[in-house]
UniProtKB/TrEMBL annotation:
PANTHER family the UniProt entry points to: MULTI-COPPER OXIDASE (PTHR11709)
Protein name from the UniProt record: Multicopper oxidase family protein
SUPFAM superfamilies, per database record: Cupredoxins
TM spans (from-to): 39-63, 75-95, 107-129, 136-154, 160-179
Entry keyword set: Membrane, Metal-binding, Oxidoreductase, Transmembrane, Transmembrane helix
Protein source organism: Phytohabitans maris
Domain of life: Bacteria
Amino acid sequence: MSTAQLIALDLLATLLAAAGWVGAGVAAAARHARAALALLVVAVVVTLARVTTSVALATGGWWFAQDRVVLTGPLLGVAGLAAVLVAGPRLLYAVRAGTPGNSPTAVVPLLVAGYAGAAGLLFPLLVGYPATWGDVLVTVALVGVAGLVTWRVAGSGPPLWTFLPVLAMGLAGVGAGFATGADLDAGGGPTAHHPAGHGVSVTDLRGPTTPTPGGQVRRYEFTARTTTIQVGGRAVEAWGYDGQVPGPPITARQGDLVEVTLHNADITRGVTLHWHGYDVPAGEDGAPGLTQDAVPPGGEFVYRFRADQVGTYWYHTHQASDVGVKMGLYGTLVVGPPAAGVDVTLPVHTFGATTVVGPVDPPAAAPGTPVRLRLVNTDGVPHRFALTGTAYRLVAIDGSDLNEPGELREATLRLPAGGRYDLSFTMPAAPVTLFVDGDPGPRLGAGGGTPPPAPEGWPELDITGYGTPAATPFGPESDFDRGFTLVLDRGIALVDGTPRYAYTVNGRAFPNIPAQLVREGDLVEVTVANRGFDTHPWHLHGHRVLVLERNGHRVTGSPLWLDTFDVQPGEVWRVAFEAGNPGEWMNHCHNLAHAALGMALHLRYDGVTTPYHGAHGG
Ligand code: C2O
Ligand code: CU
């Protein structure tokens, strides 16, 4: 059983346990002693079952079970045991003697066990990992207050002053919550060395102004503006770079200098350009509030970087990026040389309910022509591609070539939000169709005719076992200078000062997630675990990460250098990178709606400072 299924099963068991205990209490209060006794037995059985699910969860990773083991399990265990010992004999006696069995000594302990069960259900949904001392105190106090109130309502309650210690405990817990406010995570490495305010500013970490010898300057001038575009025959309000959606494609050769002057005509929320997957100098990264201020209407910003990485990338606004990218502020960045034959870049973007592939259809390709399709997922959710009519190879992921990728046929390719896949094949005599999420998309080769049947039941390619291993500069056994753990979930947290049902990292949301501190040259390991029910495409700016393990299994195929990896519910990814690009960097979920709801943090190089404050992570 997968961890995601276990999480669901555990929550179901907790729900049933809570319902069983509450039901037993209600039945007892309603003078149905026999029913109460039966429900008590059910509650005990389900509560014990929950012990099993908690232990099973712990084997998938401590993060998945910590709250169950240190807090909600013991709480329900103690309350349930008390209910069995106190209410059990009374209910038994009532059944035998034919009396109602509705005395408070029977009812109240059963209901308290029910409250403890409810806490076990709500805690993982509202708080999650890690359960802190403050959380423990608050949770126990809440169950305690509910129990005392019930007891008094039931008649023979304790004096009012008994509430005081319980309330004090709750307040202490709240206080403890406020007190734990580290804003830096050194990942087990040395802490900050440079005193605050001393060091290099991100604004000084700018790109060169000349190409490498022999390269060219690729100069672009983009004006972001509101516009109207046609999607599936409908006029749709959009925002575009140069009024175009996608924005003008940027192409370059390795060694060229890319220079883009960004203007903003009328996007009132402001715009930037972020080079997704491209490890530009920090000052060119386009992260508002961190590396620059967003460009307001009438403003401009000039970006410059050398096209050192070959491959398929994309650019997008990083200001109010959830809205901005959805509205159309994105485009492709491909660093060549272009492949021989047909080389076409197909960004996939969803407008409302319509998923559009590529700004234009691929050009005609005669049989025998080599074809390269560069797929770019510019949406916040994964897309599933299938290529029919030909065998092909997945030759590059996120701009990095794979080592000896094998031939694929009848496979489904799941492309994470923000990610890129390059597919390569030789054009056969019959047409080739690219399916997107089960629907026929662009078609190459002899036009017309009926579209081929949709591929059904084609297995999903596991990229961690595709291609052939090759040497990497570091690997699972390396000695890491620092290690960070990011546990992704949902929960109540402050997002920009407002309590929200946020997307959280280690129980907190932007900007309260401690920044990760590294030093230049560090080898850094990052573990990302997903406790929630959403997929989180994790994206670190300025660095490629090497995948070490997924769910405890090492990569057995080609090395995977990714900038966006899809952490699905219950999954645990272990990745690593070399800290070789000094700056302050965003590190966030690329479902940009999740980032806007808190799932974003910073990676900070010791000694790098930023003069910008306060803009949102998403
Ligand atoms: Cu593609 Cu922080 O983004
Ligand atoms: Cu997410």
